[in-house]
Amino acid sequence: MDHIHLMRVFVAVGELESFAAAARRLAISAAAVTRAVGALEESLGVKLLLRTTRSVRLTEAGSRYLEDSRNILASLREANEAAAGVNAAPRGNLAVTAPMLFGKFFVMPCIVRYLQTYPEVDVSALFLDRVVNLVEEGMDVAVRIGPLPDSGLKARQVGQVRRLLCASPDYLARHGTPRHPSELAQHALIAANGVGAGLEWKFREAQVPLSVRVKPRLNVTSNDAAIAAATAGLGIAHLLSYQVADDLVAGRLRTVLEDFEETPWPIHVLHRESKYGSAKVRAFIDLLVSMLGEHRYLN
Q: pTM score, two decimals?
């Protein structure tokens, strides 16, 4: 049996953790899926999946083989595209992910220009305030804000943003301006879980990291909601500079404790490493890097 076919079947089962779901994805019978996985395990001489009547999960060897198989199949697709001349011009589907407000403010203008330039490309944009796994969720390009963990992904830094505290002039007039992070306990605080807010907010004092435990009066899952609450005068919010840049310029918000801010967070554009590359990915990344690198709110 074709080994590449066996790998495709195994990847579907491993990702979906279900023989039946894999059969539906591949449009083949469940029996064919079972035979393919069995043939693959026999040829390798190792157990890749643990199967019970209720669940399917990967063995340790299966987890490693799943990742290797994904990379092999991705390289095969790209090699076929290159040989067929698909890389001559961007075409096909491009999947992009970014944080929600960042995607709205900065990535969408790039996507619009990209689609206007390359009529044979369709784009799927996933804007979420969580880390999206490029491989598992089928993304081609991602924008990440903050320090990057070690990974097999290629990354290009395109700017940086500050994590800052801000409040409305009205709130500060009524409650005063804190002079030190320790004074935050005396204020109404607004936390946005979307930017990693929690019980500790991080600062720097004399170049030394400083963490302060906080008890937010309002805890929301949307940065938009936190900004609305702050501009309405509810309290002091912990947000990223690009999210409130227009409100700061317009005077609806003011920053506080600027001397204690963390080191600015880098912004990276990430994509999966590829031997052959892809014209649609290369063209989008080049455009995105160019547009983000020129933006005043990100540098």
A: 0.64
